[in-house]
Amino acid sequence: MDFDRKQYTDDILKELYEGLLRPRLIEEKMLILLRQNRISKWFSGIGQEAISVGVTLALEEDEYILPMHRNLGVFTSRKMPFERLFAQWQGTPMGYTKGRDRSFHFGSNEHHIIGMISHLGPQNGVADGIALACKLRKEKKVTVVFNGDGGTSEGDFHEAVNVAAVWDLPVIFIVENNGYGLSTPSNEQFRCKSFADKGIGYGIEGISIDGNNILEVYRAIKTLADDLRENPRPVLVECVTFRMRGHEEASGTKYVPGELLDEWSKKDPIENFEKYLVAQHIITQNYMDELRKKIKKEIDDALEAAFDETFPEADTALELTDVHAPFHQDIVTPSSDQKSEKRFIDAISAGLHQSMERFDNLILMGQDIAEYGGVFKITEGFVETFGKDRVRNTPICESAIIGAGLGLSIKNMKVMVEMQFADFVTEGFNQIVNNLAKTHWRWGQCADVVVRMPTGAGTAAGPFHSQSNEAWFFHTPGLKIVYPSNPYDAKGLLCAALEDPNPYLYFEHKVLYRSIKGFIPDDYYTIEIGKAKLVKEGNDLSIITYGMGVHWAVEVVASLEHIKADILDLRTLLPWDKEAVSETVKKTNRVLILHEDTFTGGIGAEISAWVSENCFSDLDAPVMRVASLDTAIPFAPTLERNFLPKSRLKNTIEQLLAF
Ligand SMILES: Cc1ncc(C[n+]2csc(CCOP(=O)(O)OP(=O)(O)O)c2C)c(N)n1
Hints:
- The protein has 659 residues and is α/β, with parallel strands linked by helices.
- The protein contains 25 helices and 23 strands.
- It has a 7-stranded mixed β-sheet with strand order 12-11-13-14-16-15-21. Strands 1-4-5-9-8 form a 5-stranded parallel β-sheet, with helices on both faces. It has a 5-stranded mixed β-sheet with strand order 18-20-19-22-23, with helices on both faces.
- It is elongated, with a radius of gyration of 28 Å.
């Protein structure tokens, strides 16, 4: 292996050497502990240390790195205290996740490290968001995100590289090409000769370097980072290396040809660098022995401290509280009585506009939302007022963009992402349910993102432009969901959601956009999250509903002579207003839950179960539900009408009253 020290001082070379030794010695210890059954699982990065260490030491300390499962050297090079790292792996309190997540699955803003989630690729979008925040604030920082060669097959990788390319984001996408993805060899994973070649496909530079040569890695990243800080753009860096051990220790290396392991063991990054440093008289055998002794003692001391701890005492209240970032909502009332008539769509637009004025760190992202104003024209004229930096047209990359929302939150920005249609949220599903929803509970980072969801049927738009998919998210702890039914709520709930640092899904029914109007305050105001509203009052039954259901209920009840119903508009679906539900049940003793979403496993199922459990003695009849048919949404208007629940509402009301 050829080492070229260029201008680097002896001190830098020694720092790099010590940097390499730390993860190696920790790993050697871990392999012993694993055999002794004292730790549970281990993903080895032995033989790949030059990449983590070279990259980290080449960067400035406050530049963000998003490492993977073989990048222990990133954590040690950022001087993360060993005892906290070991406690993290053990699931004990001194770790970074209160025992809630394992291994390298955590972030630490103090160290500017954002750990992966198990899904590998999603962190690329998060890196884009961090880099975007740096660029918008003119901070001149690069962001580095790690990928295994296998993980690059994921759509998330392609989306994030593409977004970074289009937006000239200063992100270094590292691909550690180590020959295998679990047991799958490279030739069954991808066809490219070198990942550097992929750069041209995205219109960016790609380079390939020897990932086992610490000086080559260090120099390449240092040179690139210096350049990218001044001339922001993404670069793909392939680091050629080899995975010397199994995917994780238990799975072994049986499927790896012995010759390959022999060949690569001769290229060990540490042994080779040691030989070079000794030959250059920069270090001696004695220096090496002393350094190893010193690091081993640090490891042993830290292990003792970590093993002294026991698993955290379970505290249910704390587990539940930490699901959300702390936030106290101060309700804002309009500062004047001035009102004007607004359609539902104008109310959303006004709320968004005023929130942009109120929060200069709020960024809007979505397809066609800038000059075009969005397909529904909610952001029409915004780009002229707020500029292209804050009103961002995005490529068709839902996952990378929602991931970027988390990255922006990490840098204390606020984000609104517009789904062109709620249906397309499937492409960003993982980022919402696994990244946005879980990050605060896992390691205390908020995800200050509102995803706007133009939803609902009634426009003969067929199965993929009409879905009600709120129930997909209703089941996920960590999210909040609002679903207004009128212009007043639309504005107040959107402003409230944007104030709250927690992740929201904001559903807006497309049929309501231009079909309803109301006089609403011109000033900024918010509505209490989690508070339902009684829209109509009556003693015969309670109809609990939201969104379009509110309008159907009002219309159908008005058509039924002598029947008077409480119509409760939930407004917030997560957390939903149990107190208001319980109050109306007590009053009428008969409950019907109505929603546009399909029947099975809908939100009605949850409310019905809760009412049965908690209000049983107040009920004079079984809780009934009216919902859409359990099919996809048909295109033809006759079929769509039949699919939707409105036509079945009257009958069910009569059935319930007759019980
Ligand atoms: C979305 C997803 N699919 C599958 C897995 C299971 N898995 C974990 S690591 C891995 C292999 C990753 O290979 P590569 O990206 O090359 O990284 P390496 O382990 O070689 O460093 C697989 C298949 C996963 N974690 N996430």
